Amino acid sequence: KNTVTKIAGDRSGKVREVILQNQVKVPCQVIIGAIGVVPNLDWVKGTEIRSDRGILVDEGLKTSVPNVFAAGDCCQTRDFFGGALRVVPIWPSAVRQGKVAGFNMAGGEKEYEGPLVMNSVELCGIPTISVGLTDPPEGNGYETMESFQEKKGIYKKLVLRDDRIVGALFVGDISRAGVYTGLIKEAIKIDEMRDHLLKETFGLIHLPREYRKHHVTGEGIEV
User: Fold this and answer.
1) How far apart are CA 147 and CA 164, in angstroms?
2) Which of 21, 22, 72, 195 is surrounded by the most beta carbons within 10 Å?
3) Separation CA 133–CA 76 (nearest Å)
4) CA distance readout (Å), 78 to 13, 61, 146
5) Are 70 and 101 in contact (CB under 8 A)?
6) E strand or H helix at 210
7) pTM
8) How many helices (H) and strands (E) does the chain have?
């Protein structure tokens, strides 16, 4: 991994390049800084509720204190792929966590499947969406597929493992991001559609027939 150690500008004060820790210089025109979200845990300090970056919970969203649950932006749980313990402060995760925690508080026994990291933002008129593991560790069976259309300003990246998509990044063209997100969530095998994944024509027709049936309904529709 690398990081920025210096930002260099020209005489007018505009950014010209960044210098990385390994002394590599990267030309650029815009700098975007982001540090993520850190939950305010002052109110649980000194209590028996265990915390790290967020409040630590198990698969049922129970904290270390009996009959106390946590959900939403303060919650730190194992991610969708069963890996690191993460705080994922996004609305879809908070809604799902709230439903599971509420069900279990009422005496039920549901397990939370873990948050799927997602982000959608538009900067300088360029839409960007990322889902899942977009920067996986080296090795461990991960494979990366990329497509870059410089003239159109379109970049696409897919991260695969065990014949399934586990991460996706789209810049410039985000029109089918929902389709890829569904494939990630449902852990759909992509062997039959691999050659179409990064094509502009990729869509519903390339999905496995049994999977399509769950997403296309209506009188007279043949999938």
Assistant:
1) 18
2) 72
3) 17
4) 44, 10, 28
5) yes
6) helix 209-212
7) 0.76
8) 3, 11
